[in-house]
Amino acid sequence: MRVPLSWLAEFVDLQPGTTPEQVHAALVRVGLEEEEIHRFEVSGPVVVGQVLDFVEEPQKNGKTIRWCQVQVAPEGERAADGGDAVHGIVCGAHNFLVGDKVVVTLPGAVLPGPFPIAARKTYGHVSDGMIASVRELGLGDDHEGILRLSTLGLDPEVGADAIALLGLDDSAVEINVTPDRGYAFSIRGVAREYAHSTGAVFRDPALTRAPEPAAERVEEREARLETRTPAEERVEEREARLETRTPAEERVEEREARLETHIPALHVTLDDTAPIRGRQGATVFVTRVVRDVDPARPTPPWMTSRLTLAGIRSRALIVDVTNYVMLELGQPIHAYDLDRLTGDITVRRAQPGETLVTLDDATRELNGEDLVIADASGAIGLAGVMGGASTEIGADTRNVLIEAANFDPVSIARTARRHKLPSEASKRFERGVDPRVAEAAAARVVQLLETLAGGRADARGSVIDESTPRHPIDLVRGYVSSLIGVDYTDDEIRGSLSEIGAELEVTETGLAVTPPSWRPDLAAPCDLAEEVARIVGYDRIPSVLPVAPPGRGLSRSQQLRRQASAALADAGLTEVLAYPFVDANANDTFGSPVGESVRAMRLANPLDASAPFLRVSLLPGLLDVARRNLSRGFTDLAVYEAGLVFLPQDGVQYGSSALPVGAALPAADTLAALNAGIPPQPRRIAAVLLGNTVDRQPEQPPVPVGVADAIAVARQVGHAIGATIDVVQGSHGALHPGRTAELVVNGAERAHHVGYAGELLPALAAELDLPRVVAVVELDLDLLIHLASSHVEARQIADYPAATQDLSLVVPISAAAGDVHTAVVQGAGPLLEDARLVDDYRGSGVPEGAKSLTFALRFRASDRTLTAAEASGAKLAGAALAAERYGATIRE
């Protein structure tokens, strides 16, 4: 929210010379977050000038310029830049006449850009300044011609300061408005907060009503009565005699008078047959009609400058007035061209197949949950989001229907997100708008349209108010102090709550506090306690570190998760966080080893329609991170993520239960139903590696990544948490055949699959705009932690020397090296301390269809020095078991 200081000063006292920085500091003290300071980037001398004469001069390039003589100071006085009162200026615009008063930027001035102004030679003349357009001054986008002050209804003195005249000397502070403080999306709300912080006097603009046209006519009638003739006096006497009517006649007359003042120009019906969460879509709907407005009248400069500083582009007077009141009071206003309406107005849900052309000229298919404003022709606006093009205010609009309503925040938020149509109105409605401000806002629009557009307001309008009053909150005595940790006095508590607009009633246990209508976020005693702490001052809260209770800390699983992540970070990988939202193809590709369609959780309202599912694997997000970084020049990457995946089970309905609104503490069965509606969310850890593990160096070629690096990452994780990961030949639809490893942890009874490691299919890597070789690994971290040993045993240093031998076995090429390795280890028995595959040879000397696997074996006994015969016997036993299982023969 951007708050111009001149506007803020209308409703709260600002000390002379108050700077934007001081306003920011004051607002920070009451919990608002400062953002930026906005100023018009214009500095003087910028003055009012009058065109005395000009000569049109065609140029060789086909352009015609005007050589103008412009008076920029009263006769006999020096100009603001120290020059003569009349300046010669070259101008390329043609929309002005002799005698027009314009804005002249003299040498030494600086315009937005920054664009410094100086006397310079152009088109054969020395142009001593520049005649400025609206865009050049930073007041809007209009650059069709220069700004003629008469179009703004201004006739200032020649030489007057144009910066002050156009409000360009104003500045604005920008604050970040959190979702719970929607009232701060208005000058009214920010002024109130500034008053809380500084103690300045606050004047609520919602309490200042415009004089009703009906009241004005009464005053005119009374003035005419003062000049009545004798005949008129006799008529008055007759009317006085009628005052002797009976009480019954008086009551009938009063009732008819009341009805007459409440007959609206249009009939309005609230017809919400499909409320969301049991809440009606509209609870307040106020309309007013202003006739005979002059759409050609300009927006006054003070309004234009304030809207510009507030970040809203000035468009046309009627629209500018509605935006101005929205910013001032926080109540979104919509204006309709009354002559384009067909019949009465109904607020309802959209009908099946209904469409609406909105103000952005987009045709939108409406949803049955969308709340719309409709007339006899159908929907004419998305309630609280955007109006329809059929009733848009245009250049020929003469009669205006004003709408000020209050809509349900949930309904508006869903509609805005469903149609991807955020607006200033929806931003306010979805955070909650004061239901009591609608009438004041409508009256303020009427006042401005009468004053600025020459309109004439009808005395009648609709006022529908079905909003429910706020219920009091019981604030028990002593609760605030116990929660905040500060001894607040009763006067401080009552004073703080009264200051924010709450109504207080003393009870036996403390206070019954009714929050103000503009604070929907105050719903519980803790909210009131926070307000007391905020208004009294956060500096009263002591800075005391809590003492950690003894015997507590991270659980074992938390410790192991941190150890796994730290191990990869220590190994040089970079931790990243990817979005958990993916498309169906990504889930099917990486969620199933054979690429089958997998069940996934679909989001009801996804942020991106192209990624509506929750992930079943971490790899799609990591690959997207890798692709983005690769496109930015990072060719060697090693990234990892530890996070949750979402694995719904077949036959289970998820998300069917909802937490009851307003329940203080859900029952156990309610919580059980909610938990049952959440799919399993195991924790995974995954990594993606591409590029080189060792860069090219003199006399050293680069070493590219491969499947071995992915396996090393997996074993690094296993080592960090005390689990031994073994590798067996595996297959996966997304990974390269022959370069895919299934990762297992061998338990007491069976081997547990814990993940995959391998290289992406080259075709898939190319489809993802990645290099040909991309190594990936993904592990089930929760399962790994479950399988890890609860304690780590330190290995004893061997007392006796080891015996080493090599074993080369010729096996069928289809035999997996890991399986042969397992057979050798099992057959060699307890004397074998370590066995590693050191060579895989296929070529001359090996039969066709076979391969030679060489294992380096290390034998050791704990109680003696082994003989060569003992080591050879163990080796041959291992070879025998490999021969039995896979037909292995010892290669000579």
- Tell me the radius of gyration: 40 Å
Question: How are the strands ordered across the major sheet?
Answer: 28-31-32-38-37-36-35
Q: Give the overall shape, derived from the CA principal axes.
A: elongated
Q: What's the total number of strands? A: 42
Oligomer: single chain
End-to-end C-alpha gap: 83 Å
CATH topological fold name of the largest domain: BirA Bifunctional Protein, domain 2
Total count of helical runs of at least 4 residues: 24
The CATH architecture designation of the largest domain is: 2-Layer Sandwich
How much helix is in the residues?
Answer: 25-40%
Major sheet, described briefly?
Answer: 7 strands, mixed
Quick one: CATH superfamily of the largest domain? Answer: Bira Bifunctional Protein, Domain 2
Q: Which stretches are low in confidence, meaning pLDDT under 50 for 5 or more residues running?
A: 209-235, 237-244, 254-263
Can you tell me the CATH class of the largest domain? Alpha Beta
Percent of residues in beta strands: 15-25%
Mean pLDDT: 88
Q: Find the structural class using helix and strand composition.
A: alpha+beta
Blueprint (SSEs and pairs):
Blueprint: E1 2-4, H1 5-8, H2 20-29, E2 33-39, E3 46-58, E4 64-71, E5 86-91, E6 101-105, E7 110-111, E8 115-116, E9 120-122, E10 125-127, E11 130-131, H3 162-165, E12 171-176, H4 187-198, H5 213-225, H6 230-241, H7 247-261, E13 268-271, E14 282-291, H8 301-309, H9 317-329, E15 333-337, E16 345-349, E17 355-357, E18 363-365, E19 371-375, E20 378-382, E21 386-387, E22 400-407, H10 409-418, H11 424-429, H12 438-453, E23 456-457, E24 463-465, E25 473-476, H13 479-484, H14 490-499, E26 503-506, E27 510-514, H15 525-536, H16 556-570, E28 574-575, E29 581-582, H17 584-591, E30 613-614, H18 619-631, E31 637-644, H19 668-676, E32 683-690, E33 692-694, E34 703-704, H20 707-721, E35 726-729, E36 735-746, E37 751-760, H21 762-767, E38 774-780, H22 781-787, E39 803-812, H23 817-828, E40 832-841, E41 850-859, H24 868-886, E42 889-890
Parallel strand pairs: 13-16, 28-31
Antiparallel strand pairs: 1-12, 2-12, 3-4, 3-6, 4-5, 6-11, 7-8, 9-10, 14-22, 14-23, 14-24, 15-22, 16-19, 17-18, 19-20, 20-21, 25-27, 26-27, 29-30, 31-32, 32-38, 33-34, 35-36, 36-37, 37-38, 39-41, 39-42, 40-41
Helix pairs in contact: 2-4, 8-9, 9-12, 14-15, 16-20, 23-24
